[in-house]
Predict the structure.
Amino acid sequence: MSGISREERIGLNEAVFRDVNERIQDVAAGFDVRSEPLDLICECGDAKCVKRIILTREAYEQIRSDAHLFARCSGTCRAECRGGRREPPGL
Ligand SMILES: [Zn+2]
């Protein structure tokens, strides 16, 4: 509809889900559950993909420390989401 490209739209979706996951992580931090795994939403960039993924906080922080890593579902994401990007560890 608007003039944004598919790549921009994918980037936007990733940013939205990343933001959601950061809030989940913030809430978890507020409850001091550092040893509990985080229940996150796939950040593959597909607006229709709302798969939940479980990551340890350690794995999540590792992903967050690298701007090119996203917490994504494994295997089922679209090829263009995975292309040229490294898979986060532990998925
Ligand atoms: Zn996905």
